[in-house]
Write a structure and sequence with these properties.
alpha+beta; Helix Hairpins; 3 domains; three-stranded antiparallel sheet; 30% strand; elongated
């Protein structure tokens, strides 16, 4: 027999409130939207089954006596089935007296919305205002579902039991079974005058504002769980949870790779050759970087701690600046003469170039090498 107390991590003398808190904590950790995977899904089902038993006073009392609604009993028919299980298998119902009226109050559904944020907010965090359409408690009836001044009356069909009994024949003889009452839908009472605003459901849909604190380091696909901010359940039931999925908008300058940022800086040929100090934009504002003389195209300059805040842990990633050396395509006569003089002084008036293999080995080729077939 399953140990439902161990599944929820509570003691056998735990109060109903302790059981509810333990279930909500584990459900938030194991919910398939937050923790995908077969193991987490199986654990989520096991925890939900445990709460279904321990969260119901009648089921819990039966379980404490040694009967397990899902896994059998210590006695009975010998194969782990109670008398109610056999009635369910043959007739689709339960044995007389096994149910009783069910509560109108139910937990609300969880909700999932998407939030678009810019790169600086993803990097440093910040507050965002959300507008959500959700179900809230009806202010007219305060969740009761009935018009003010009215209430409910006991169901005439089931006399408040929430179920009706039927006698059916089987190989065991005549068997009494119970089914939910159709007149009151199993509640045991009927709302005579439903509230006009909520149509007797105890909740209405509305739009409300919610302030969300976005932690620094989130990325596209990150989900933030807000406990109790989902839909209110029928008849003022406990609200579900709200999950906010982050979508980071593309940036005009920076590209994100993990917690590092990458950008390209165009460098004039003369600055790359002579060295220079150039301004670079970062998420923190402009900074100056020093180029060494002889900077080559494709080189990178890492700026430590100028990237994205680590979501888990301290510190930030880096900003990697990729250098793009721009060769001039249009020269006037004086500029062309100056470059020609530079080439002459460096012995590059008739350049031979250097060829290299993918392994990085390079050698100089000349016309004499070509004539010799090298």
């Amino acid at each position: 027999m399953n140990d439902y107390y161990a599944d929820l991590g509570v003691a056998r003398e735990a109060t109903p409130e302790d059981i509810k808190k333990a279930y909500r904590k584990k459900a938030r950790q194991l919910h398939p939207d937050v923790n995908p995977g077969a193991e987490a899904e199986a654990e989520f089902k096991r925890v939900s089954q445990a709460y279904d038993v321990l969260g119901d006073a009648a089921k819990r009392a039966s379980y404490d006596r040694g009967q397990d609604p899902y896994g059998g009993a210590t006695g009975g028919f010998g194969q782990g089935f109670t008398f109610s299980d056999i009635m369910d298998a043959f007739f689709g119902g339960t044995a007389a007296g096994a149910r009783g009226p069910r509560s109108r109050t139910q937990r609300g559904h969880d909700a999932l919305i998407r939030l678009d944020i810019d790169l600086p907010t993803a990097a440093f965090g910040g507050e965002q205002t959300l507008q959500i359409d959700t179900a809230v408690v009806c202010s007219t009836c305060s969740g009761a579902g009935a018009q003010p001044g009215s209430g409910t009356r006991t169901c005439d069909v089931c006399s408040g039991r929430g179920e009706v009994q039927q006698v059916q024949r089987s190989f065991l003889g005549q068997v009494m079974t119970s089914r939910p009452c159709q007149a009151c839908r199993g509640f045991g009472d009927v709302i005579e005058h439903p509230c006009f605003d909520c149509s007797g459901e105890g909740r209405v849909r509305t739009r409300r504002d919610l302030t969300l604190k976005v932690p620094g380091g989130v990325d596209t696909g990150t989900r933030i769980a807000l406990a109790g901010e989902g839909e209110v359940g029928p008849y003022g039931g406990e609200p579900g949870d709200l999950y906010v999925e982050i979508q980071v908008e593309p940036h005009d300058v920076f590209t994100r790779r993990g917690d590092d940022l990458h950008c390209t800086l165009e460098v004039p040929m003369t600055a790359a050759a002579l060295g220079a100090t150039l301004p670079v934009e970062t998420l923190d504002g402009p900074v100056e970087v020093d180029l060494r003389p002889g900077t080559q195209p494709g080189q990178t300059l890492p700026l430590a701690g100028k990237g994205i805040t680590h979501l888990r842990g301290e510190g930030r990633g880096d900003l990697v600046v990729h250098l793009d050396v721009k060769v001039p395509t249009r020269l006037n006569d004086s500029q062309r003469e100056l470059l020609a003089q530079l080439a002459e002084s460096r012995g590059e008036s008739s350049p031979t170039g250097r060829m290299g293999s993918p392994s990085g080995h390079a050698r100089r080729h000349s016309l004499w090498d070509a004539l010799r077939g090298r």
